[in-house]
Amino acid sequence: xxxxxxxxxxxxxxxxxxxxxxxxxxxxxxxxxxxxxxxxxxxxxxxxxxxxxxxxxxxxxxxxxxxxxxxxxxxxxxxxxxxxxxxxxxxxxxxxxxxxxxxxxxxxxxxxxxxxxxxxxxxxxxxxxxxxxxxxxxxxxxxxxxxxxxxxxxxxxxxxxxxxxxxxxxxxxxxxxxxxxxxxxxxxxxxxxxxxxxxxxxxxxxxxxxxxxxxxxxxxxxxxxxxxxxxxxxxxxxxxxxxxxxxxxxxxxxxxxxxxxxxxxxxxxxxxxxxxxxxxxxxxxxxxxxxxxxxxxxxxxxxxxxxxxxxxxxxxxxxxxxxxxxxxxxxxxxxxxxxxxxxxxxxxxxxxxxxxxxxxxxxxxxxxxxxxxxxxxxxxxxxxxxxxxxxxxxxxxxxxxxxxx
Length: 405
Prior knowledge:
Layout: H1 9-12, H2 18-26, E1 32-33, H3 46-54, H4 58-65, H5 74-86, E2 94-99, H6 101-113, E3 119-124, H7 128-136, E4 140-147, E5 150-151, H8 153-165, E6 173-175, H9 189-202, E7 206-209, E8 237-242, E9 254-259, H10 260-271, H11 279-290, H12 293-319, E10 325-326, E11 334-338, H13 345-353, E12 357-358, E13 360-361, E14 374-378, H14 384-402
Helix pairs in contact: 4-11, 5-11, 6-7, 6-10, 8-9, 12-14, 13-14
């Protein structure tokens, strides 16, 4: 008898995340996991969260355990509004909605804007999770390459000109300006202004995804100022952020900032997904911001990630073949490796896994057929010892693949 359950076109277009599959490998004993972009698991603010919960009044306990409003816990929304203003963002006629992680934020925003067949512009390479959300809604992609200082403005304008002539302007431009996932590249301030000018010229909004922006370890906050904070950006940019990197990914808590009309539509979309983000984690996050714990944690983690990135740079210089090149991030979690022409990342992954080293191959981040010459390695959740050991083993795996063994 034929199966009664017939999958939708949307479901048939879904693909398993390579990173999620790698997380299964990372849990095995002995694996050096350069794969997932996880924060340092030994340094979460455990004591601060325990202090927060210990001080809860009865009213706050009830709020934490009860259903909440779809748009979010009011005290947290107010703290986030102040945080956005501190980022230099004009909050006039802007609203905020909390989400169950930034991944849900990307999906809800896309659900509110994308019809099947719509075109969007994405960076090449770009975040796997965003691509999965956009693909699930059957969007078409235009790929804008990355330069050493972020998305190519010339290539983006060429795409926009062509699409305008074809009368199919994209619904939005998706960018990760700070320590981009997977490349680790940062969009220069000059290019941020240029990209915004293009968005205004062609009337195409920008979706700015900024999960790593506070985790810089070179320069100052001014070097990583958001596109959303620039003059003229208020109604052209939707801004996404998350507590995953500044508190805990296990909290599953993010937020979207944008024009009130758009946030209202996203709120309606969210009502059909989970009704409300966890009240419990929102109350914790609200107190975490109110008590200023976030500042101490972020300051500490900048130093931690700086030392790990420095170790990875030294190890790459020491153990990589001379034909290999890599990005040099000034914050965040990731390094993007460009492999020699005779080494593919899939073959390298197999050889590395035999040595108990895991990373993410380049293909899932790029246009189909164009990513096998690249690999993403994350330094964020490895010890300094494992970083050096893992890069050494990765170099040995490269030699094995190059020799055709």
